[in-house]
What we know:
Domain Outer membrane protein assembly factor BamE: 33-100
Number of strands: 5
Largest sheet: 5 strands, antiparallel
Subcellular location: Cell outer membrane
CATH architecture of the domain at 25-108: 2-Layer Sandwich
Oligomer: single chain
Helix content: 25-40%
GO cellular component, one term: Bam protein complex
Keywords: Cell outer membrane, Lipoprotein, Membrane, Palmitate, Signal
Low-confidence stretches: 131-138
CATH topology of the domain at 25-108: Beta-lactamase Inhibitory Protein, Chain:B, domain 1
Shape: elongated
Distance between the termini: 74 Å
Protein name: Outer membrane protein assembly factor BamE
Amino acid sequence: MQNLIKTVTFSVVLALVSGCSYVGVYKRDLAQGNLINQDMVSQLETGMTKEQVRYVMGSPLLKGPFNEDRWDYVFYLDEAYDDVEEKRVTLTFQNGRLADIDRHGNIEDDVDLTPQSGPGPAVEGSGPGEGAAAMGPSYGPEE
């Protein structure tokens, strides 16, 4: 009977300890969409052609499925331990020329996408052998 009580107690304690332990979960910033900054948007002017807009802003993330004269540039940054930042620029064309520029979000602030140091997986090229990958594979001592 005592062995049964010890076994049940040990099992319950083990289940509680393993289920309640918190080691931590690594989270990282998740950036999606078109990178939008103030320099790019300030170069836009009404009357520009679609090719000129594509040269300044890049290809749009979204084109209107029923209206090819609407281009949406969307940037979404889910910061790991902070808020979500969203920027959106909607461009409307008439007769192949830029007619309207609609901005949403804080486009004036630049987004810092540099990797942060700390716990988690190492960033490629930041480890002890960072130059080794650039040199190519090594097959043994050179003759």
